Amino acid sequence: MKKKKIIKRIIITLLILVIAILGAFLIYANVYMHSSYTLEENAVLLDNGDYYLEGSSDVGIIFYPGAKVEETAYLPMLSKLQEKGYTCILVKMPLRFAFLGTNSADDYYDEYPEIKSWYMSGHSLGGAMASSYASDNEDLIDGLLLLGAYVYGDFNPENSITIYGENDLGLDRSKIGDVNVYEIEGGNHAGFGYYGVQNGDGELIITREEQQDEAANLIDSFIQERTGDI
Question: What's the pTM value of the predicted model, to 2 decimals?
Fold first, then answer.
């Protein structure tokens, strides 16, 4: 009987510990960086909370946001890609952590059969998880577009592009490859989105619009080299 009581107490203690850890994580997750961007008519809010920006070509981009960043902060960046003809899908991640929704892209291949060429993209942690997904689904993904991130997994670097800001102080440059890598002069980590200043980031010398314009042009050139003019 005494042994059963000890086991019961251990189980109760572990349950309390798990609940406490889960509660602390939920509190942490609910403190996130808010978007400073006002929505425009070109972005359609889907039933699942994702956003759809319709392009004029058969090329689609699925975008995973950075950790603890409100997803709409990336609509300006994706709007620039939409203007170049690309259909973009901005994924709202569970608790705004991309590692909790790595396979979110699975929802869209059958939903939009008119898209013939799919690219995964993401910023920071979102880029890492987009890269991980692409590595596991190379038969579905034609390319990988990384902002303030690096190739994570076994995805062919020849089919990826890495873009980062000169003053990004949080990016481990030792993990960046040497294929299709571009540094934006005067840019930083948070400059790819509209969510204010990020702790530990370097100074943004250029404007966010300039950083995103340059990134969109680089991405456009990268895709057109693989798919032809759209």
Answer: 0.88
